[in-house]
Amino acid sequence: xxxxxxxxxxxxxxxxxxxxxxxxxxxxxxxxxxxxxxxxxxxxxxxxxxxxxxxxxxxxxxxxxxxxxxxxxxxxxxxxxxxxxxxxxxxxxxxxxxxxxxxxxxxxxxxxxxxxxxxxxxxxxxxxxxxxxxxxxxxxxxxxxxxxxxxxxxxxxxxxxxxxxxxxxxxxxxxxxxxxxxxxxxxxxxxxxxxxxxxxxxxxxxxxxxxxxxxxxxxxxxxxxxxxxxxxxxxxxxxxxxxxxxxxxxxxxxxxxxxxxxxxxxxxxxxxxxxxxxxxxxxxxxxxxxxxxxxxxxxxxxxxxxxxxxxxxxx
Length: 315
Prior knowledge:
This protein is of the alpha+beta class. About 40% of the residues lie in helices and about 25% in strands.
Protein backbone atom coordinates (compact mmCIF):
# COMPACT_ATOMS: atom_id res chain seq x y z
CA UNK A 1 0.00 0.00 0.00
CA UNK A 2 1.39 3.41 -0.99
CA UNK A 3 0.36 6.72 0.54
CA UNK A 4 1.64 8.61 -2.49
CA UNK A 5 -0.55 10.79 -4.68
CA UNK A 6 0.59 10.41 -8.28
CA UNK A 7 -0.46 12.56 -11.21
CA UNK A 8 -0.60 10.75 -14.56
CA UNK A 9 -0.63 13.06 -17.57
CA UNK A 10 -2.18 11.74 -20.78
CA UNK A 11 -3.91 13.07 -23.87
CA UNK A 12 -2.54 16.34 -25.18
CA UNK A 13 -3.27 18.02 -28.49
CA UNK A 14 -1.09 15.92 -30.78
CA UNK A 15 -1.62 13.32 -33.48
CA UNK A 16 -0.90 10.71 -30.80
CA UNK A 17 -3.63 11.81 -28.39
CA UNK A 18 -5.68 8.61 -28.53
CA UNK A 19 -2.61 6.43 -28.00
CA UNK A 20 -1.60 8.59 -25.05
CA UNK A 21 -5.03 8.29 -23.45
CA UNK A 22 -4.80 4.51 -23.70
CA UNK A 23 -1.32 4.56 -22.16
CA UNK A 24 -2.45 6.82 -19.33
CA UNK A 25 -5.47 4.70 -18.51
CA UNK A 26 -3.44 1.51 -18.38
CA UNK A 27 -0.77 3.07 -16.18
CA UNK A 28 -3.40 4.55 -13.87
CA UNK A 29 -4.99 1.16 -13.28
CA UNK A 30 -1.59 -0.49 -12.79
CA UNK A 31 -0.61 2.05 -10.11
CA UNK A 32 -3.99 1.82 -8.41
CA UNK A 33 -3.53 -1.92 -8.08
CA UNK A 34 -0.45 -1.05 -6.04
CA UNK A 35 -2.69 0.87 -3.64
CA UNK A 36 -1.57 4.25 -4.94
CA UNK A 37 -3.83 7.28 -5.19
CA UNK A 38 -3.73 8.36 -8.83
CA UNK A 39 -5.23 11.33 -10.64
CA UNK A 40 -5.38 11.02 -14.42
CA UNK A 41 -5.41 14.41 -16.13
CA UNK A 42 -5.03 15.94 -19.55
CA UNK A 43 -2.35 18.54 -20.20
CA UNK A 44 -4.60 21.56 -20.68
CA UNK A 45 -5.04 25.11 -19.39
CA UNK A 46 -6.34 23.90 -16.01
CA UNK A 47 -3.28 21.76 -15.26
CA UNK A 48 -0.96 24.23 -13.54
CA UNK A 49 -3.67 25.73 -11.27
CA UNK A 50 -4.68 22.18 -10.31
CA UNK A 51 -1.05 21.27 -9.55
CA UNK A 52 -0.62 24.39 -7.42
CA UNK A 53 -3.74 23.51 -5.42
CA UNK A 54 -3.30 19.75 -4.98
CA UNK A 55 0.51 19.35 -4.97
CA UNK A 56 0.81 15.69 -6.00
CA UNK A 57 3.87 13.85 -4.72
CA UNK A 58 5.05 13.07 -8.24
CA UNK A 59 3.93 12.97 -11.86
CA UNK A 60 4.27 10.39 -14.60
CA UNK A 61 4.09 11.67 -18.16
CA UNK A 62 2.19 9.35 -20.50
CA UNK A 63 1.95 12.01 -23.19
CA UNK A 64 3.26 11.02 -26.61
CA UNK A 65 4.40 13.25 -29.42
CA UNK A 66 5.86 16.71 -29.01
CA UNK A 67 4.26 17.80 -25.77
CA UNK A 68 5.25 14.67 -23.92
CA UNK A 69 8.69 14.09 -25.36
CA UNK A 70 10.27 17.43 -26.26
CA UNK A 71 10.77 18.56 -22.66
CA UNK A 72 8.02 21.20 -22.52
CA UNK A 73 5.76 19.49 -19.97
CA UNK A 74 8.78 18.22 -18.06
CA UNK A 75 10.01 21.80 -17.77
CA UNK A 76 6.65 23.02 -16.46
CA UNK A 77 6.61 20.33 -13.77
CA UNK A 78 10.17 21.21 -12.82
CA UNK A 79 9.24 24.89 -12.49
CA UNK A 80 6.25 23.91 -10.35
CA UNK A 81 8.48 21.83 -8.09
CA UNK A 82 6.73 18.54 -8.84
CA UNK A 83 9.08 15.54 -9.19
CA UNK A 84 8.41 13.61 -12.36
CA UNK A 85 9.34 10.18 -13.63
CA UNK A 86 11.52 10.40 -16.70
CA UNK A 87 14.19 12.45 -18.38
CA UNK A 88 14.96 16.04 -17.42
CA UNK A 89 13.50 18.70 -19.68
CA UNK A 90 16.80 19.86 -21.22
CA UNK A 91 17.88 16.32 -22.09
CA UNK A 92 14.54 15.42 -23.67
CA UNK A 93 15.46 17.62 -26.62
CA UNK A 94 18.42 15.42 -27.51
CA UNK A 95 16.36 12.28 -28.02
CA UNK A 96 13.30 14.05 -29.44
CA UNK A 97 15.33 15.15 -32.45
CA UNK A 98 16.14 11.93 -34.31
CA UNK A 99 19.25 13.15 -36.20
CA UNK A 100 20.72 14.53 -32.97
CA UNK A 101 20.11 11.25 -31.16
CA UNK A 102 21.70 9.26 -34.00
CA UNK A 103 24.74 11.54 -33.99
CA UNK A 104 25.30 11.26 -30.24
CA UNK A 105 24.89 7.48 -30.18
CA UNK A 106 27.23 7.14 -33.14
CA UNK A 107 29.82 9.30 -31.35
CA UNK A 108 30.01 6.82 -28.46
CA UNK A 109 30.85 4.04 -30.89
CA UNK A 110 27.56 2.40 -31.85
CA UNK A 111 26.35 1.93 -35.42
CA UNK A 112 23.26 3.53 -36.94
CA UNK A 113 22.04 3.42 -40.56
CA UNK A 114 23.46 6.17 -42.75
CA UNK A 115 21.19 9.19 -43.10
CA UNK A 116 20.72 12.77 -44.17
CA UNK A 117 18.27 15.47 -43.10
CA UNK A 118 16.54 17.66 -45.64
CA UNK A 119 14.44 20.78 -45.14
CA UNK A 120 11.33 21.37 -47.21
CA UNK A 121 12.75 24.52 -48.77
CA UNK A 122 15.73 22.56 -50.12
CA UNK A 123 13.46 21.00 -52.75
CA UNK A 124 12.02 24.37 -53.69
CA UNK A 125 15.39 26.12 -53.88
CA UNK A 126 17.41 23.41 -55.63
CA UNK A 127 14.74 21.56 -57.58
CA UNK A 128 12.99 18.41 -56.40
CA UNK A 129 14.17 16.15 -59.22
CA UNK A 130 17.85 17.02 -58.76
CA UNK A 131 17.70 16.61 -54.97
CA UNK A 132 15.95 13.24 -55.25
CA UNK A 133 18.53 12.01 -57.77
CA UNK A 134 21.37 13.09 -55.48
CA UNK A 135 19.66 11.49 -52.50
CA UNK A 136 19.29 8.11 -54.19
CA UNK A 137 22.84 8.29 -55.50
CA UNK A 138 24.27 8.99 -52.05
CA UNK A 139 22.25 6.61 -49.86
CA UNK A 140 20.86 4.04 -52.34
CA UNK A 141 17.42 2.45 -52.27
CA UNK A 142 15.51 1.32 -50.31
CA UNK A 143 15.13 4.37 -48.09
CA UNK A 144 12.90 5.20 -45.15
CA UNK A 145 11.55 8.72 -44.76
CA UNK A 146 10.61 10.06 -41.32
CA UNK A 147 9.77 13.43 -39.81
CA UNK A 148 12.92 14.45 -37.93
CA UNK A 149 10.82 14.75 -34.78
CA UNK A 150 7.79 12.77 -33.68
CA UNK A 151 6.76 9.31 -32.64
CA UNK A 152 4.51 6.34 -33.40
CA UNK A 153 5.95 6.21 -36.95
CA UNK A 154 3.55 8.96 -38.04
CA UNK A 155 4.58 10.17 -41.48
CA UNK A 156 7.14 7.38 -41.90
CA UNK A 157 7.23 5.25 -45.04
CA UNK A 158 9.65 3.20 -47.11
CA UNK A 159 10.53 3.87 -50.74
CA UNK A 160 11.92 0.84 -52.56
CA UNK A 161 11.89 2.45 -56.01
CA UNK A 162 12.68 5.95 -57.26
CA UNK A 163 9.04 6.38 -58.24
CA UNK A 164 7.98 5.96 -54.59
CA UNK A 165 10.29 8.68 -53.25
CA UNK A 166 8.10 11.76 -53.96
CA UNK A 167 5.10 10.29 -52.13
CA UNK A 168 7.28 9.23 -49.19
CA UNK A 169 8.57 12.81 -48.94
CA UNK A 170 5.04 14.22 -49.03
CA UNK A 171 3.97 11.92 -46.20
CA UNK A 172 6.94 12.87 -44.03
CA UNK A 173 6.67 16.61 -44.72
CA UNK A 174 3.01 16.48 -43.64
CA UNK A 175 4.35 16.22 -40.06
CA UNK A 176 7.12 18.80 -40.18
CA UNK A 177 9.43 20.93 -42.29
CA UNK A 178 12.49 18.71 -41.89
CA UNK A 179 12.74 15.06 -42.94
CA UNK A 180 15.20 12.38 -41.90
CA UNK A 181 16.06 10.15 -44.86
CA UNK A 182 17.72 6.93 -43.73
CA UNK A 183 18.98 3.79 -45.40
CA UNK A 184 16.32 1.13 -44.85
CA UNK A 185 18.05 -1.86 -43.31
CA UNK A 186 16.38 -5.23 -43.79
CA UNK A 187 16.61 -7.33 -40.66
CA UNK A 188 15.05 -8.07 -37.30
CA UNK A 189 13.49 -5.04 -35.65
CA UNK A 190 13.70 -4.96 -31.87
CA UNK A 191 12.90 -2.64 -28.98
CA UNK A 192 14.86 -2.60 -25.73
CA UNK A 193 13.53 -0.93 -22.58
CA UNK A 194 16.06 0.50 -20.13
CA UNK A 195 15.15 1.17 -16.51
CA UNK A 196 17.24 3.03 -13.96
CA UNK A 197 17.82 1.39 -10.60
CA UNK A 198 20.05 1.97 -7.59
CA UNK A 199 22.76 -0.03 -9.38
CA UNK A 200 22.50 1.97 -12.60
CA UNK A 201 20.57 1.48 -15.86
CA UNK A 202 19.55 -2.07 -16.78
CA UNK A 203 18.08 -3.42 -20.00
CA UNK A 204 14.92 -5.50 -19.92
CA UNK A 205 14.51 -8.35 -22.44
CA UNK A 206 14.32 -7.16 -26.04
CA UNK A 207 11.02 -7.42 -27.90
CA UNK A 208 11.10 -8.63 -31.50
CA UNK A 209 8.69 -6.95 -33.91
CA UNK A 210 7.35 -8.75 -36.99
CA UNK A 211 4.75 -6.59 -38.81
CA UNK A 212 2.63 -8.32 -41.44
CA UNK A 213 3.30 -5.44 -43.85
CA UNK A 214 7.07 -5.61 -43.39
CA UNK A 215 7.15 -2.05 -42.03
CA UNK A 216 6.33 -1.15 -38.42
CA UNK A 217 4.14 1.86 -39.27
CA UNK A 218 1.39 3.53 -37.23
CA UNK A 219 -1.30 1.07 -38.25
CA UNK A 220 0.93 -1.92 -37.50
CA UNK A 221 1.77 -0.50 -34.07
CA UNK A 222 -1.72 0.15 -32.80
CA UNK A 223 -4.01 -2.27 -34.61
CA UNK A 224 -4.23 -5.61 -32.83
CA UNK A 225 -3.36 -8.57 -35.05
CA UNK A 226 -1.27 -6.72 -37.64
CA UNK A 227 2.06 -7.38 -35.91
CA UNK A 228 3.53 -10.43 -34.19
CA UNK A 229 5.71 -9.82 -31.14
CA UNK A 230 8.25 -12.09 -29.50
CA UNK A 231 9.19 -11.27 -25.92
CA UNK A 232 11.92 -12.02 -25.34
CA UNK A 233 13.18 -11.60 -28.90
CA UNK A 234 14.47 -14.66 -30.76
CA UNK A 235 18.11 -13.60 -30.56
CA UNK A 236 21.18 -15.61 -29.68
CA UNK A 237 22.88 -14.72 -26.41
CA UNK A 238 25.61 -12.61 -28.00
CA UNK A 239 23.18 -10.54 -30.07
CA UNK A 240 20.83 -10.07 -27.12
CA UNK A 241 23.78 -8.81 -25.06
CA UNK A 242 24.82 -6.44 -27.86
CA UNK A 243 21.26 -5.06 -28.05
CA UNK A 244 21.24 -4.49 -24.30
CA UNK A 245 24.63 -2.75 -24.46
CA UNK A 246 23.41 -0.47 -27.25
CA UNK A 247 20.24 0.49 -25.38
CA UNK A 248 22.08 1.24 -22.13
CA UNK A 249 24.71 3.25 -24.04
CA UNK A 250 22.02 5.30 -25.78
CA UNK A 251 20.28 5.89 -22.44
CA UNK A 252 23.51 7.22 -20.96
CA UNK A 253 24.80 9.14 -23.98
CA UNK A 254 21.54 11.06 -24.30
CA UNK A 255 21.26 11.80 -20.59
CA UNK A 256 18.05 9.82 -20.20
CA UNK A 257 16.56 9.07 -16.81
CA UNK A 258 14.31 6.47 -15.16
CA UNK A 259 12.99 4.76 -18.28
CA UNK A 260 13.56 4.80 -22.03
CA UNK A 261 13.00 2.54 -25.03
CA UNK A 262 15.56 2.15 -27.79
CA UNK A 263 14.45 0.93 -31.21
CA UNK A 264 17.08 -0.95 -33.20
CA UNK A 265 17.56 -3.27 -36.15
CA UNK A 266 19.64 -6.45 -36.28
CA UNK A 267 21.00 -6.61 -39.82
CA UNK A 268 21.85 -9.69 -41.86
CA UNK A 269 25.36 -9.84 -40.40
CA UNK A 270 24.02 -9.83 -36.84
CA UNK A 271 25.09 -6.27 -36.12
CA UNK A 272 22.69 -4.26 -33.94
CA UNK A 273 22.09 -0.76 -35.29
CA UNK A 274 20.47 2.15 -33.44
CA UNK A 275 17.33 3.67 -34.96
CA UNK A 276 15.81 6.00 -32.36
CA UNK A 277 14.92 6.33 -28.69
CA UNK A 278 11.73 7.21 -26.84
CA UNK A 279 11.56 9.01 -23.47
CA UNK A 280 7.82 8.43 -23.04
CA UNK A 281 7.25 4.87 -24.25
CA UNK A 282 3.72 3.71 -24.98
CA UNK A 283 1.90 1.61 -22.42
CA UNK A 284 -1.07 0.37 -24.45
CA UNK A 285 -2.09 -3.24 -24.97
CA UNK A 286 0.09 -3.39 -28.10
CA UNK A 287 3.01 -1.33 -26.72
CA UNK A 288 6.49 -2.72 -26.34
CA UNK A 289 7.50 -1.60 -22.84
CA UNK A 290 4.80 -3.64 -21.05
CA UNK A 291 5.85 -6.70 -23.07
CA UNK A 292 9.45 -6.21 -21.90
CA UNK A 293 8.30 -5.85 -18.29
CA UNK A 294 6.25 -9.05 -18.51
CA UNK A 295 9.12 -10.92 -20.17
CA UNK A 296 11.33 -9.85 -17.26
CA UNK A 297 8.82 -11.33 -14.81
CA UNK A 298 8.03 -7.92 -13.35
CA UNK A 299 4.83 -5.97 -12.75
CA UNK A 300 4.14 -2.71 -14.61
CA UNK A 301 2.56 -0.98 -11.61
CA UNK A 302 5.32 -2.10 -9.26
CA UNK A 303 7.99 -0.95 -11.69
CA UNK A 304 6.49 2.51 -12.08
CA UNK A 305 5.83 2.86 -8.37
CA UNK A 306 9.54 2.25 -7.85
CA UNK A 307 10.32 4.94 -10.43
CA UNK A 308 7.94 7.31 -8.64
CA UNK A 309 9.86 6.76 -5.40
CA UNK A 310 13.14 7.45 -7.24
CA UNK A 311 11.75 10.69 -8.63
CA UNK A 312 10.56 11.80 -5.20
CA UNK A 313 13.94 10.99 -3.67
CA UNK A 314 15.66 13.13 -6.34
CA UNK A 315 13.21 15.96 -5.84
